[in-house]
């Protein structure tokens, strides 16, 4: 809603200087916005201030909208931030148990990129996409394949441009309702059912503060790879030293474990990213309201100067006319 | 270009002291910080982008296994929406593993256990806190740290017995009338959870 209004205002701003107005006075006024007001052409007594007035109105409206968006982002952020901070404990047991192996070299890599659905939030989506592209480059090679699963409209739009073929699935409207674990678990299940993987790499922006976020990669290995890695004694914790309770076989438990880990990591990642998005939107909207304010100040100054100049000219004309009559 | 140079300078300055510290004190966990092979590979493909952080570098390193068994067990009990117990030292926890109730004391052998719906009790001196957990995992590490991850948990005293009875009879009826495999499985889960809840309340 707000975004549509902003777009409309932006369009008006773009269009307004190019609207064809036939009269020479108006043509002169058009140039007055960009060039000094003394440039009034022959035949026009004063520069029209109407265009400046219109533009001032537009800028004021834009400022109102960006301010409102900032407020909305700020109030949403507060709720999401507490949820995000509460969800941070969720993935830590898994990392403590299984370790983390971002450098693992496997055949089928799936890159799960978490982005937002809406724009106007600074650089968080392009950061996610850039990191995903680099990771794609890192993990693809001869005899290896690397595919994307994209969450969020903005990431999809950016990745479709150059790597349409490697996108396996896209999911949008993640944040229509507030993110909850059940929804993410269903989503994780959906992803696991539809893609074949040896390693899943979840990319999201970890929220640090309202003005800073950190791109993060979490790696989840498939049960087979996890077993192989732990036997090889690499970066993974040694799973062999753990006794396994429940389930018929070790593989079954490991499968459950890695699926549960994926849903937990995805949940935290989605929340962190939503939180970063709101923070980034808040600061982006803050700076654009400030810019609109600056622009408004400049325009007001120009407008007032022009008005004053025309009044002064009129006064001089009256006075000189009167003195000519007297003398 | 200059911008990158500055960043490189900063990163070198930031790395240097930690390396020195690692030499000075031997008590730094080996797996801390980042994966160096990953960072190197990353620098090769994307020299202009900072390598992303990894979960390992974002979490507190765990202590090594002590030589003697500590007197207390350190418990982390996490839910998606809350860290119910964070790094708390207790005497014992009893977790509802799929193979049966499992008591965990300090010095317990390292275990991975899948949980079933049941009662998780945390013993701390004479205080016993009981939670009903839906499902999840419990990891007991060799260094007397127990991590319990559950999808949902509530203190047992907040459960309404009347609703449990109602739910139990509802799902039993559903199990009787279920025709497809999916319906049957769903009803079976409902019956299991509610009878576990019932047992938790009466037992």
UniProtKB/TrEMBL annotation, chain A:
Bilayer topology term: Peripheral membrane protein
CDD domains the UniProt entry points to: F1-ATPase_gamma
UniProtKB keywords: ATP synthesis, CF(1), Hydrogen ion transport, Ion transport, Membrane, Mitochondrion, Mitochondrion inner membrane, Transit peptide, Transport
GO BP of this protein: proton motive force-driven ATP synthesis
Pfam families assigned: ATP-synt
Residues spanning the membrane: none
Keyword Mitochondrion: yes
Cross-referenced InterPro entries: ATP_synth_F1_ATPase_gsu, ATP_synth_F1_gsu, ATP_synth_F1_gsu_CS
Stored NCBIfam families: ATPsyn_F1gamma
Family as reported in the entry's similarity comment: Belongs to the ATPase gamma chain family.
Quaternary assembly: F-type ATPases have 2 components, CF(1) - the catalytic core - and CF(0) - the membrane proton channel. CF(1) and CF(0) have multiple subunits.
Function of the molecule: Mitochondrial membrane ATP synthase (F(1)F(0) ATP synthase or Complex V) produces ATP from ADP in the presence of a proton gradient across the membrane which is generated by electron transport complexes of the respiratory chain. F-type ATPases consist of two structural domains, F(1) - containing the extramembraneous catalytic core, and F(0) - containing the membrane proton channel, linked together by a central stalk and a peripheral stalk. During catalysis, ATP synthesis in the catalytic domain of F(1) is coupled via a rotary mechanism of the central stalk subunits to proton translocation.
PANTHER family cross-referenced by the UniProt entry: ATP SYNTHASE GAMMA CHAIN, ATP SYNTHASE SUBUNIT GAMMA, MITOCHONDRIAL
Protein name per Swiss-Prot or TrEMBL: ATP synthase subunit gamma
UniProt organism field: Setaria italica (Foxtail millet)
Lineage: Eukaryota, Viridiplantae, Streptophyta, Embryophyta, Tracheophyta
Automatic annotation (TrEMBL), chain B:
Entry superkingdom: Eukaryota
GO MF entries: proton-transporting ATP synthase activity, rotational mechanism
Keywords linked to the UniProt accession: ATP synthesis, CF(1), Hydrogen ion transport, Ion transport, Membrane, Mitochondrion, Mitochondrion inner membrane, Transit peptide, Transport
GO cellular component: mitochondrial inner membrane; proton-transporting ATP synthase complex
Keyword hit for tRNA-binding: no
Primary site of residence: mitochondrion
Classification via InterPro entries: ATP_synth_F1_dsu/esu, ATP_synth_F1_dsu/esu_N, ATPsynth_dsu/esu_N
Function field: Mitochondrial membrane ATP synthase (F(1)F(0) ATP synthase or Complex V) produces ATP from ADP in the presence of a proton gradient across the membrane which is generated by electron transport complexes of the respiratory chain. F-type ATPases consist of two structural domains, F(1) - containing the extramembraneous catalytic core, and F(0) - containing the membrane proton channel, linked together by a central stalk and a peripheral stalk. During catalysis, ATP turnover in the catalytic domain of F(1) is coupled via a rotary mechanism of the central stalk subunits to proton translocation.
Family: Belongs to the ATPase epsilon chain family.
Record text on subunit structure and interactions: F-type ATPases have 2 components, CF(1) - the catalytic core - and CF(0) - the membrane proton channel. CF(1) has five subunits: alpha(3), beta(3), gamma(1), delta(1), epsilon(1). CF(0) has three main subunits: a, b and c.
Protein name: ATP synthase subunit delta', mitochondrial
Organism lineage: Eukaryota, Viridiplantae, Streptophyta, Embryophyta, Tracheophyta
Gene: LOC101756301
């Amino acid at each position: 809603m707000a975004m549509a209004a902003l777009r409309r205002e932006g369009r008006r701003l773009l269009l307004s200087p190019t609207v064809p107005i036939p009269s020479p006075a108006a043509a002169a006024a058009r140039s007055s916005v960009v060039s000094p007001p003394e440039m009034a052409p022959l035949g026009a007594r004063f520069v029209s201030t109407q265009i400046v007035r219109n533009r001032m109105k537009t800028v004021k409206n834009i400022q109102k909208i960006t301010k409102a968006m900032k407020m909305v982002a700020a109030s949403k952020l507060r709720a999401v931030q507490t949820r995000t901070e509460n969800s941070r404990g969720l993935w830590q047991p898994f990392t403590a148990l299984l370790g983390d192996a971002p450098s693992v070299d496997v055949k089928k890599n799936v890159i799960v990129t978490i982005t937002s659905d809406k724009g106007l939030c600074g650089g968080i989506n392009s950061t996610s996409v850039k990191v995903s592209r680099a990771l794609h480059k890192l993990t693809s090679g001869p005899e290896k394949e690397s595919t994307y699963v994209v969450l969020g409209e903005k990431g999809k739009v950016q990745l479709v441009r150059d790597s349409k073929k490697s996108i396996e699935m896209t999911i949008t409207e993640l944040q229509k309702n507030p993110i909850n674990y059940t929804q993410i678990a269903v989503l994780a299940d959906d992803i696991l059912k539809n893609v074949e993987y040896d390693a899943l790499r979840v990319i999201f922006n970890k929220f640090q503060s309202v003005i800073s976020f950190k791109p993060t990669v979490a790696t989840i290995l498939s049960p087979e790879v996890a077993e192989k890695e732990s036997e090889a004694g690499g970066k993974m914790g040694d799973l062999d030293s753990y006794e396994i309770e429940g389930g018929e076989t070790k593989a079954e438990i490991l499968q459950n474990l890695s699926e549960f880990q994926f849903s937990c990591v995805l949940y935290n990642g989605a929340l962190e990213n939503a939180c970063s998005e709101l923070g980034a939107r808040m600061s982006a909207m803050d700076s654009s309201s400030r810019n609109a304010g600056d622009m408004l100040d400049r325009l007001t100054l120009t407008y007032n100067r022009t008005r004053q100049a025309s009044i002064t000219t009129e006064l001089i004309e009256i006075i000189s006319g009167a003195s000519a009559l007297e003398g | 270009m200059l911008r990158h140079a500055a960043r490189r300078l900063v990163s070198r300055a930031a790395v240097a002291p930690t390396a020195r510290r690692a030499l000075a004190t031997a008590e730094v966990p080996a797996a801390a910080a980042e994966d160096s092979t990953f960072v190197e590979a990353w620098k090769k493909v994307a020299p202009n982008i900072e390598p992303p952080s990894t979960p390992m570098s974002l979490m507190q390193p765990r202590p090594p296994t002590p030589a003697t068994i500590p007197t207390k067990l350190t418990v982390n009990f996490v839910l998606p929406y809350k860290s119910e117990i964070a790094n708390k030292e207790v005497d014992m926890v009893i977790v509802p593993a799929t193979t049966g109730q499992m008591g965990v004391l300090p010095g317990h052998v390292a275990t991975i256990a899948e949980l079933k719906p049941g009662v998780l009790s945390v013993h701390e001196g004479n205080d016993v806190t009981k939670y009903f957990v839906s499902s999840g995992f419990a990891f007991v590490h060799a260094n007397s740290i127990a991590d319990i991850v559950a999808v949902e948990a509530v203190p047992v005293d907040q459960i309404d017995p009347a609703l449990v009875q109602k739910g139990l009879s509802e799902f039993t009826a559903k199990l009787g009338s279920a025709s497809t495999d999916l319906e049957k499985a769903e009803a079976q889960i409902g019956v299991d959870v509610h009878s576990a809840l019932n047992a938790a309340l009466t037992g």
